[in-house]
Specification:
Blueprint (H helix, E strand, L loop, with lengths): L2 H15 L13 H4 L6 E10 L7 H17 L1 E2 L2 E2 L3 E6 L12 E9 H8 L12 H10 L10 E7 L3
Antiparallel strand pairs: 1-5, 1-6, 2-3, 4-5
Helix pairs in contact: 3-5
Length: 161
């Protein structure tokens, strides 16, 4: 059996085994499943880079960093913080490949479910299944960033051992 046939068999088997309650109306996995803390267990790194509008001063950038770092304690589910760690720093590479991004953050989670709960919209539709503190932070920082997709870059990955 070819690799593609094996892969297709695994995908089909998993889709048949997925309980009906886990499906949303569009045939995807429902918000309550993809935000469960046990969904996709394993360390997940969520990297966020900001590119500010030219008029944003250094004090505002420091305030953004302070508010982002505060999410470590403010972002809670079931009354408990769920973010493993958040670190930040300013761009300092000498390679010239920063593409104008000035400030970076790395947020660590114990599972894809925790990451999905944190990310919220647009990945999660139902507001019962995402973090309102992070959603409020996104609204706070938005006016300071370049418009559209130019002001933020997000890259997530599961840590491979």
């Amino acid at each position: 059996m070819s690799f593609m046939n094996k892969l297709l068999s695994v995908v089909l088997l998993n889709s048949m085994l997925m309980p009906a309650f886990a499906r949303d109306g569009a045939g995807g996995i429902s918000d309550n499943v993809i935000t469960d803390p046990n969904y996709g267990l394993g360390r997940v790194e969520h990297i966020v880079l900001f590119k500010y509008k030219p008029e944003v001063n250094s004090e505002t950038k420091q305030l953004v960093a302070k508010n982002f770092l505060a999410l470590k304690e403010l972002a809670v589910r079931n009354g408990k913080p769920y973010i493993v760690s958040i670190v930040t720093g300013s761009q300092s590479s000498l390679e010239g490949l920063g593409h104008g991004f000035e400030q970076g953050f790395i947020v660590t989670f114990n599972s894809e479910g925790d990451r999905n709960y944190y990310v919220g919209k647009p990945a999660v539709k139902d507001d019962h299944y995402y973090d309102h503190a992070h959603n409020a932070f996104k609204s706070f920082v938005h006016p300071y960033l370049l418009e559209g997709d130019d002001g933020v870059l997000v890259f997530d990955f599961r840590v491979q051992n």
